[in-house]
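Self-study notes.
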Amino acid sequence: KETGTQEAIVDNNTGVLADDVDGFHEAVLRLATDEDYRKKLGDNARMHALTFDWKRSAAELSELLDGTNQV
């Protein structure tokens, strides 16, 4: 699990995050065999992706950088 991935993927809602090889194997197996689960994750991921845009990302980055100048 990495920081960027955790922001983009909500575990078991918009995708699957695995902590290790066994978890990854289980996730891939479920995705390959459970059509309803795959569809749910895909639908949720599409909706989640719509919440991200460049204008918002730029504003958040600007706010973060502004905070780094304060000592």
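Second protein, same conventions, sequence then structure:
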Amino acid sequence: GKQSTVTVTNAAGYRYVAKKGASPVTKEVRLPRYLAAPVRKGDAVGSLLLYEGDTLLSEIPLVAEESVLL
């Protein structure tokens, strides 16, 4: 495409209430190194993983915030 980057956002809101004394929540972003155009706004392009210690709390889809044409 004509753009060298695309902005991503989470597909849905996410809330987590930590229990007192719980392990810190860590995040891991999984995105491909490259995407091939066209990419349409709302296309799933990766995921955000949230962990409490070694326990996976949630995998949240990441979507393109804008379209990228050829």
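Instructor comment on the second fold: The two ends are 4 Å apart (CA to CA).
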